[in-house]
Amino acid sequence: MRHDSVVIGSGPAGVACASALVARGITPLVLDGGVRFDPNRVESVPPPSFDLNTLPLKPIFGSLFPYAPTGAGVRLTGGVGAVPSLAVGGLSTVWGAGILPYAAEDIADWPVSAADLHPHYRAVLGFVPLAGVRDALAERFPLHVEPAALRVTPQIESLLDDLRSNEVRLRDVGVVAGRARLAVNMSKCDYLGLCLTGCPHGAVYSSAHTLDVLAAAGSIMHDAGAVVTRFEETRDGVRLSVRGASEPIVARRVYVACGALPTTRLVLASLEQDKPVVIRDSAYFTFPVLRRRLHTPRVSPSIAGNTLAQVFVAIDDDAVSSRLVHLSVYGFNDLMLRALAARAHVSERVALRVLQPLLARLLFVQGFLHSDESPGMRATMSGDELFVAPEPGNVTPRARAVLAKLRSIRAELGLDPLRPLLRVWPPGKGFHAGAVFPMREDPGPLETDILGRLSGFERVHVVDASVLPTVPGGTITLSVMANAHRIATLADES
What we know:
Shape: globular
Oligomer: single chain
Strand content: 15-25%
């Protein structure tokens, strides 16, 4: 059967692309690996822990179904933290839901400007819920739509009070901070504190939600379980080879949105390219901090509320990095309690009582650097598999510089970073990776034009993070969706 448009992948980029096509009056066919959560086949996954020495894959409802250890044609070597997905909704089924757009200066060297993306940010936020507030972040990171405000715990409100009181001083030293912006549906949130392990009400957005709405309305066709292994552009259209299918799928135009690792495999296999390529990464590091206030509001699992990131911090200081550094701050949650109880060799009930002064002051921070200052991953095709290995590089000194910066303004932040517990994770562990086939005004080999087309292709568009020119340190998903929406909107104009 011949189709007008086929979207390969149902993660955030694929759904944003499909939504743009639907807005143009097109009914696209969406292909994906088709894996969904099955409560009858939950893997035996150890309870999630908050161990700073190991950071296992995040389960959802006790399952690791979003990750694809096999079947995606990707082989990971030691020292790689990235994982492909064959899930309906991709990794958005298990993400942290942060949706801050890229700052204009983060993408000033792209062939696509922040202004070019603005209408597509707004379009995406028309179906992705935005929880946040208008605060100090808005000047550099536009809201684009009016958000809904999630309730915060007394612990986080205390931190936000300190940040607001010192907003001018922080700005003077190149730091801007505010409430985290999250893809959370307020109407479904009951503040159960289960955000990190699986919201039973589906309040945390997944692109599978939008996919199912579009499919139910008949706006798209969805073929779950169709894994595309190659594409070929001919005079008649684009032919897609699908694993296990007796005949190829033919389309007038194809949009590739499999995610950085599977898309790299698909493109290299289709081009019969065996030379290595680099998957760029935003280096990921973590560390705990202690509130400087000795008397802080009491914490407990019963009042944990929303346990996703609660505060975003951006650092603009050339002494630390030539690019913006982004931090996501997490408040108390049951994983912290579980970890401290395990280290103290006491029950969680005892730990909550005895360690209350520590738990009330303890916060956890995730940090991200720009890909220009981060080692990436080297990917090479061998047979039908993509082998991915880490590139050498040491970002520990720069991560330490971030902590030194925070320590220099600890009075204004109201936080003391715990430097001995800093961890720098392997490339890909933060799941902010891409820029494999970067968009260029004048693309060279294995680069793409501003519509995500590789040299020699007119009707195959790569639309996911693989075509970002760089990977800034900020949250990646909203900008990937906006760019995918932009490409699908403009694809027939040139």
